[in-house]
Amino acid sequence: MLLRLVVRLIGAGVTLAGTALLTFILIHAVPGDVARVIAGSKASPEVLQAIHTRLHLDEPVWRRLGWHLSDLAHGDLGRSYVTEQSVAEAILIRLPATAALAGLAVTFWMLIAIPLGALTARHPGGWVDRSVLVLSTLSLSLPAFWLARMCQYWFSYKLGWFPVAGFRGFGHLLLPAATLALLFVGYYARLIHTHMAEVLNSHYVRAARAKGASEGMTLFRHGLRNAMIPVVTVLGMDVAGLLGGVMFVENVFALPGIGTLAVQSVFNLDVPVIMGTVMFSAVIVVGANLVVDLLYGWMDPRIRSA
Fold first, then answer.
1. DSSP 3-state assignment of 79?
2. Angle between the 171-200 and 144-151 helix axes, to the nearest 10 degrees?
3. Per-residue pLDDT at 38
């Protein structure tokens, strides 16, 4: 188990280094001049040159790449070209909104998906099972930005049940979190259904029933716990998809989160902020997969003994 963790940590370091390198290359492949974004379209050549000199934009790309990688290795995300604010500070200021949105969305979809998956596994072929299948197909097909716009239009503009945009309290998170949860709840309900149906037909569950175990104990103690092992693995891999959904939902509902910061930085060609938000997201994704590895070992004794 320890060797497995060490190998994963080395792999995580390589992944983060590769992410930083690829992000830097892609940013500099995009046409545009951040100096013109800062100074405006009518700025004189002298002003533009002064900005280029101040931000070291005239230096060779390979040298700037070396500076960025060195700063990242020391935990320094740099300062924004546009606002001159520390990138780490900008991310930390917006982290509570993003964490609250993601956490509430995961809570919503798990509170719905787990009972639905267990119910449909226990009673396959019924109307609930067919409804979950349709919901799963829709959740995989609908784009996040379109679903967010539709939910905002109907539940905020038309019905007035929720605030349209902004972040001034818990009530402003309910609709964005529910929208984000809708993107995943059908898929996870179906995933739990599939694995739980397989577990309920296994020999050890049949043996538990033969020994007189109640249906509830069989369903939750034996069925749900074992069915959740592959679900936890998929959940770890879905962190990247969750962050992508958060970015779209934050921008539609004007939430002051990291996703909104990332989109604004792309429009401003703000290289340090783009690098900072991408690397922060990469650390979250890699860290989540490491945690899933540990949870997998705790839930499955076969992994611990490997």
1. strand
2. 130
3. 78
* CB-count burial class (<10 Å; 0-12, 13-18, 19+) for 216: exposed
pTM here is 0.81
Compute the distance between CA of residue 305 and CA of residue 92 in angstroms, rounded to an integer: 39
Residues 267, 255: Cα–Cα separation, whole Å: 17
Please write the tens of the pLDDT for every residue from 90-126.
999 999 999 999 999 989 988 888 888 878 877 777 7
CATH topology of domain 87-304: MetI-like fold (1.10.3720)
Q: What are phi and psi of 30, to 5 degrees?
A: -85, 130
86: β partners:
79
Per-residue pLDDT tens over the stretch 193-209: 887 777 777 777 777 66
What pLDDT shows up at residue 59?
79
Q: How much is the pLDDT for 131?
A: 81
Tell me how far apart the alpha carbons of residues 25 and 61 are, in angstroms, rounded to a whole number.
9
User: What's the pLDDT tens digit per position in 14-27?
Assistant: 888 888 888 888 88
Find where tokens 């539940």 sit: 155
Q: Where are the domains of the chain?
A: 2-73, 87-304
The answer to whether 253 touches 176, Cβ cutoff 8 Å, is: yes
Query: Among residues 80, 74, 36, which one has the least CA distance to residue 261?
Result: 80
DSSP string for residues in 58-80: TS-HHHHHHHHHHHHHTT---B-
CB 77 within 8 A of CB 71: yes
SS3 205: helix
Burial of 12 (0-12, 13-18, 19+ CB in 10 A): middle
Whose CA is closest to 224, among 105, 115, 109?
115
